[in-house]
Amino acid sequence: MIALSVNLNKIALIRNSREGNYPDVVAHGRVCLEAGAQGLTVHPRPDQRHIRPDDVRALAELCRSREEAEFNVEGNPFAGPLKDYPGLMPLVLETKPDQCTLVPDSNDQLTSDHGFDLERDGARLEPLIAQLKDANIRVSLFMDPEPSQIKLAKEVGADRIELYTGPYAEAVKHQSDELESIFAAHCAAAEQACQLGLGVNAGHDLNLINLPRYRTLPGLQEVSIGHALTVDAISMGLENAVTAYLNCLAGN
Ligand SMILES: CC(=O)[C@@H](O)[C@H](O)COP(=O)(O)O
Ligand SMILES: NCC(=O)COP(=O)(O)O
């Protein structure tokens, strides 16, 4: 089974466009879990444009209260602190999610658009990965499908990698000639990760059009999906959208 972790960033983005708590991020997280999603993901950013530290705290409680629900917090451990954003490491060590996915985004990035360069960042990531693992938090690294980089992900102590699927999604959208080689590189990276004993997650711009193929990736354990699922929920309703993604992942 490939686990679906619903990313709630975009629910928080709508909430933050007004004062108050509407829509309620935690209530929508609960709907996703009740509809069968195996987990919830958030990617707080230092500018708090969507997920805020208190959302992370409340969603950690929600997931802890439900057996089997996995909580995944993503972000750059080197970004922040900024104003009342404490920084990823303090927030994650306080809230103790099941998984922390480290992502190399700059503070002002629109969205994630590349994986780690571990030749550059590996040495400073290594002690942070050890600290998270000491706190019983599984560590995943956001990665491009580059063989030399996947090898380094194992060497710095990661438990899993999350393959960055943005270029794959773009290639599907534009029916690009490069689709075959991009997907082949993802398959090879996933196989390499499995051989090294790393788990395999994937995410970014996955949707109901590009997921039927991506779900065949060797060893794929979890996808985190937010943007497209939230957009689909506008027309389908959130519960039906979660069901549609679960069916898609199951190959139905
Ligand atoms: C790492 C990744 O691909 C996602 O977490 C994505 O970047 C979500 O962040 P935004 O919702 O801020 O685009
Ligand atoms: N890790 C990817 C994620 O959480 C969701 O990305 P997207 O579906 O919002 O592009």
From TrEMBL:
Keyword Transcription: no
Catalytic site positions: 43, 74, 204
Positions of 3-amino-2-oxopropyl phosphate binding: 7, 18, 205, 226-227
Database matches in SUPFAM superfamilies: Pyridoxine 5'-phosphate synthase
GO molecular-function terms, A-Z: pyridoxine 5'-phosphate synthase activity
GO cellular component, one term: cytosol
Residues binding 1-deoxy-D-xylulose 5-phosphate: 45, 50, 111
Subcellular location: Cytoplasm
Pathway annotation: Cofactor biosynthesis; pyridoxine 5'-phosphate biosynthesis; pyridoxine 5'-phosphate from D-erythrose 4-phosphate: step 5/5
Keywords (A to Z) from UniProt: Cytoplasm, Pyridoxine biosynthesis, Transferase
Chief subcellular location: cytoplasm
Main enzyme class: transferase
Cited Pfam families: PdxJ
NCBIfam families (alphabetical): pdxJ, PRK05265.1-3, PRK05265.1-4
Subunit field text: Homooctamer; tetramer of dimers.
Biological role: Catalyzes the complicated ring closure reaction between the two acyclic compounds 1-deoxy-D-xylulose-5-phosphate (DXP) and 3-amino-2-oxopropyl phosphate (1-amino-acetone-3-phosphate or AAP) to form pyridoxine 5'-phosphate (PNP) and inorganic phosphate.
Protein name as annotated: Pyridoxine 5'-phosphate synthase
Species whose genome carries this gene: Microbulbifer thermotolerans
Gene field: pdxJ
